[in-house]
Fold this protein.
Amino acid sequence: MQKILISACLLGQPVRYHGRGAACTHGLLAQWRAEGRLLPVCPEVAGGLPTPRPPAEIAGAGGGAAVLRAQARVLDAQGTDVSAAFAAGAQQALALAVAQGIRLAILKEDSPSCGSAWIHDGGFAGRRVAGQGVTAALLREAGLSVFSEHELEAAAAWLARLEAASR
C-alpha cells in the first residue's frame, strides 16, 4: 500500500502561520486516513519555525526552486529572511518521503512551502502568482508527484495507476 505525504494542516493540525489548521474534509482524505496511508508533515515547523509565526512569502522570481538555488528568498512580513528554515523543512519532508518509499504528496496550495501551482507574490497584499513553494519544488525535483488539496481526484487516479503497475 502506497503511503501519501500530506501537509499536516490539511488534516486540521494547527501548524499554519496563524496557529490554525486548514482541514480538508474531502471523502478521499477520510478514506486514505482510515487506510493508514497519510503521513503528515509541516515543513515550516520541521524547519524550526514556531507556531504561530509571521506570514512569509517568496521574494524574487522563480518560486521555491529559486529559493533552493539561493536565487530568491523567503521573507516573513517583518522582513526576516527565513529561507534557511524553509529549505531545511523541505529537506526533512524529502527525507521522510524517501525513508517511507513515498511517491505522492498532497500539499497546501498557496503556501510558500507547499504551494504546488500557486504562491503569493512576495508583496503581502494577497496577490497570487503561478509558482511552487520550496517543499513542492524539492519533492518534484526528486521525482515525487505533487498535488494540492484541490486536485484530490487527480491524485487518486495517479495513485490507482501506480498501485496497478506495481501488482
